[in-house]
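Lab notebook, design round three. We kept the backbone fixed and only want residue identities now. Task for the bench partner: fill in a sequence for the structure below.
Input structure tokens:
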């Protein structure tokens, strides 16, 4: 996984209607677990979302993404995660179709997508060839940090795919320019150069993805508009506690992709053995609470103050994963929190980037490259 920059497009959210409230053990926010408010902002993000990464067409028939999103919305999910690079745009298109067919008003849905790691030209070549005999032409990894001139083009591609009727370092400056042009709506995140509650355009809350602590610190040191969210791999086996502290200190919310441990990706396999879903401690807690291991993990993650976007195309699991809020004892929370050591020092990621990218994307000590 390369660094991905999030463009989330949303209007106001309404509560998703779970019972509660439940107090966060982390002390990050004193509110229920329906939604998290971006600190210093008026924008809320629904705490539980649906991930759509790793939708393998060999395993799932055409239409399965759309069906999954429709099921998720009907259950109560108001937070859907996507990216331009998922299925060369086909996932975004399916999500857009589901949004149109859903009875839930668009303004109640929080839609996240991300800029792609390749230039529009390379993306176009790959997307046009996806149904050919050679569906994966050689990828040109020349734009790993997103060329500034490609930012607006990539965003417009995603908005078109999603069917929405509105539309790092130098790359982040290009994102900031979209705010000025009305392409992006930033509410909150006060900085010295950008007063709180500036109201610009039609897309809210720009953020980043896969940013380590050194990258976060460098970005906010010079950014006029600070990101409100950082989406990263985060689960009991890869708790990223240092990154959590960095983001908390910078008032940046964390969203966890792969909160259940991630399905292995052939070129990115890092964790050598079973993930947290197979952990015997979590299995014992699942029996104690009469919940699935996934529900225990997701409840734990929400209590850390982290929103979650587990991916599933299984309609039953989509429903189970949403029903993940219950009274988790503080002692059991601490047990899960310490599975990888008091500071997560034994943590192991599932998505290993070093061989694929040539550098360690999650180095918490030194920025790479």
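Proposed sequence:
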């Amino acid at each position: 996984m390369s660094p991905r920059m999030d463009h989330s497009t949303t209007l106001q959210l309404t509560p998703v209607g779970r019972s509660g409230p439940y107090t966060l053990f982390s002390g990050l926010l004193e509110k229920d677990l329906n939604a998290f408010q971006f600190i210093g902002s008026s924008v809320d993000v629904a705490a539980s979302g649906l991930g759509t990464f790793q939708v393998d067409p060999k395993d799932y028939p055409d239409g399965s993404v759309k069906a999954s999103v429709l099921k998720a919305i009907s259950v109560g999910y108001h937070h859907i995660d996507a990216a331009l690079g998922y299925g060369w745009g086909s996932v975004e298109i399916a999500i857009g179709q589901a949004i149109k067919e859903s009875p839930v008003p668009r303004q109640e849905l929080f839609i996240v997508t991300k800029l792609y790691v390749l230039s529009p030209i390379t993306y176009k070549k790959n997307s046009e060839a996806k149904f050919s005999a050679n569906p994966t032409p050689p990828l040109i990894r020349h734009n790993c940090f997103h060329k500034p001139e490609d930012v607006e083009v990539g965003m417009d591609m995603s908005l078109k795919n999603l069917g929405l009727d509105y539309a790092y370092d130098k790359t982040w400056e290009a994102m900031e320019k979209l705010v000025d042009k009305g392409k992006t709506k930033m509410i909150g995140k006060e900085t010295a150069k950008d007063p709180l509650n500036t109201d610009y355009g039609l897309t809210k809350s720009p953020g980043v993805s896969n940013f380590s602590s050194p990258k976060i610190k460098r970005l906010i040191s010079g950014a006029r508009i600070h990101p409100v969210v950082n989406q990263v791999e985060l689960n009991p086996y890869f708790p990223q506690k240092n990154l959590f502290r960095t983001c908390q200190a910078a008032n940046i919310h964390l969203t966890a992709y792969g909160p259940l441990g991630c399905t292995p990706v052939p070129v990115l396999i890092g964790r050598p053995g079973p993930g947290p879903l197979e952990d015997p401690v979590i299995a014992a807690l699942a029996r104690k609470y009469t919940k699935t291991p996934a529900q225990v993990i997701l409840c734990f993650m929400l209590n850390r103050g982290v929103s979650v976007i587990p991916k599933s195309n299984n309609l039953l699991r989509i429903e189970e994963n949403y029903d993940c809020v219950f009274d988790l004892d503080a002692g059991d929370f601490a047990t899960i929190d310490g599975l990888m050591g008091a500071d997560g020092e034994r943590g192991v990621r599932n998505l290993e980037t070093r061989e694929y990218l040539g550098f360690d994307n999650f180095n918490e000590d030194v920025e790479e490259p």
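Keep this in mind before ordering anything: Confidence is low (pLDDT under 50) at residues 1-31, 130-145, 186-202.
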